[in-house]
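Notes taken during the Thursday session

The instructor put the following on the board and asked us to keep it in front of us for the whole hour. The protein is D-glycerate dehydrogenase. We were told not to look anything up and to reason only from what is written here. First, the residues (318 in total):
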Amino acid sequence: MIPGGVLVARRVPPAVAERARREFGAIVADHDMSADEAIGIAAEKGLAALVIGGSAKINAAHAAALPPGLKIVANTSVGYDHMDAAAVKAAGVIVTNTPDVLTDCTADLAFMLLLNACRRGHEYEAIMRAGWRKPFGMPDNLGLQPSGKTLGIVGMGRIGRAMAQRARGFGMKILYNNRTRLAPELEMGAEYVADLREMLPRCQILSLHLPGGAAGTLMTRETFALLPRGAVFVNTARGSLVDEDALIDALKSGQLFAAGLDVFRQEPAFDLRFAELPNVFLTPHVASATVETRDAMGFKALDNVAAVLRGQPPVDPV
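Then, after some discussion, the predicted structure tokens were revealed:
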């Protein structure tokens, strides 16, 4: 057993909880702890490691109050915009995340959103659940054929590239906007467009795959208006990237044919106007929600804890 003391300050899958207890003798929470609760227990027990999730919103004041024996705060996600990582590091505590493990899972769900937005998945299912007793004719309930469309990807990191790979299977033309151009072997035929505003008018479908925070609100009334009328919008990145009033207006006006959304500015208390729109396919921030991926996320956080408590460098430092 690795000494030092660990608190897993969120609910985790059974396999992750079992490893945490076996390998570290960890305290494993039965609920998602707040920052105050997690830090309080770490101070009381003299713990060396915190494993946290999005509910532990560690700000600068929390960072200043971290107990002296704490060595690492390990996030169980790739994103860490729920915490002030710079302040925690300034307090002398290592911060880690879990890159790589949720790439395919997130791209799978993003492409599911794309397909359901194009093919009116929400509307079709609602018809069936209501009993489907009225026949439909040739011009009724028509969706868009995603095959052969031009897909614009904003943020061509691991997940953006995985999304592009799925789109190639549908014969899509791929444009991408990124801070820097990728090497040709990573582009795999995708076209780099340095200026987002130049790319948007060419995108029949647009999918976001960049982190929130520094990017600010990327999709505004102005940028939605630059898309061709009847485009499809997909977001599995961050809700903070989108002006939701502008998105709702674009969906109502027909500027957007449809949208597929997994993330929102306020979660879980998302804007209920989205639920009233028939041309939106909605999921509750579940892009990483498979058994395989959630286990891998938890294990990667524990790998970082194990390395630091053994006096080694973290595997995935932020």
